[in-house]
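Supplementary Methods, section 5.1.

A reviewer requested that the exact input to the structure prediction be made available. We therefore reproduce it here, unchanged from the version used in the analyses.
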Amino acid sequence: MGRILYGPQERQIEIEDRALTHVQLVIVAKLRRNESFTFSWAAPDDGTRATVWVHPSIPLQFQFDSIPTPSMNNRWLQDLNAGAARGDLRIGDEPDPDPSRSR
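The structure derived from this sequence is encoded token-by-token as follows.
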């Protein structure tokens, strides 16, 4: 289980490492373009949902519990990027990387 440390108080947002790797790529790309957006997630322990405003001026750190970088699922990256482009990045279930298998 990895985490995002967000803001000057370093609020911890826990996210499974594989999902966090995908989210990191999307967030970094948005911040490189100086784009702000919201990021929403469900807390795994109590079923609650939270949202933060992500802005280039707010400190952000990614921490991973595993060393190897997982393989990327391009469909998942596309889904995450689409949500971020609409202004709210949300972590959904990872889609099958091969859409022909879901038919």
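Residues 2-94 form one domain. These observations are discussed further in the main text.
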